[in-house]
Backbone:
């Protein structure tokens, strides 16, 4: 003789659906972050620099940048801009995006993959470290936009 089990309550079914929805949302977020890792950019205008990176993108007025201190640095050769602590961000081998504390003690918003980076101090208490395809050209464009 066979007896059916008593069905789970509607609360249990609801919890299982919520867990499934959370897992799908998490998977979609990882897909988006993976796609964004290779599609970030910066846009320089006369008024601002727009940093388009996953989760941490922002627009910063040119007047808030310390262009005199901005420079192109080699991550492998410069010790004072090494990230020592991630406070809020994504840190994977060859990819760092988000908020980090540098070995100099300064806070930095980073979107770094490898090699030479554009280092831009701001008047807002942090620096930008950005891996861009042509950092020298980007720095020249920034200085031109800032009137330097």
Residues:
């Amino acid at each position: 003789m066979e007896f059916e089990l008593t069905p789970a309550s509607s609360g249990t079914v609801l919890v299982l659906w919520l867990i499934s929805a959370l897992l799908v949302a998490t998977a979609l977020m990882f897909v988006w972050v993976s796609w964004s890792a290779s599609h970030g950019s910066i846009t320089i205008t006369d008024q601002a620099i727009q940093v388009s990176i996953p989760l941490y993108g922002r627009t910063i007025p040119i007047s808030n940048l310390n262009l005199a201190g901005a420079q192109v640095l080699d991550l492998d050769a410069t010790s004072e801009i090494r990230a020592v602590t991630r406070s809020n961000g994504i840190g994977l081998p060859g990819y760092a995006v988000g908020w980090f504390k540098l070995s100099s003690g300064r806070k930095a918003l980073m979107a770094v993959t490898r090699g030479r980076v554009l280092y831009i101090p701001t008047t807002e208490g942090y620096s930008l470290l950005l891996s861009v395809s042509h950092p020298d050209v980007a720095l020249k464009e920034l200085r031109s936009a800032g009137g330097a």
Remarks:
- Residues 40-145 form one domain.
- The chain is about 25% helix and 35% strand.
- Strands lie at 41-44, 48-52, 58-61, 71-74, 83-92, 95-102, 107-112, 116-121, 126-130.
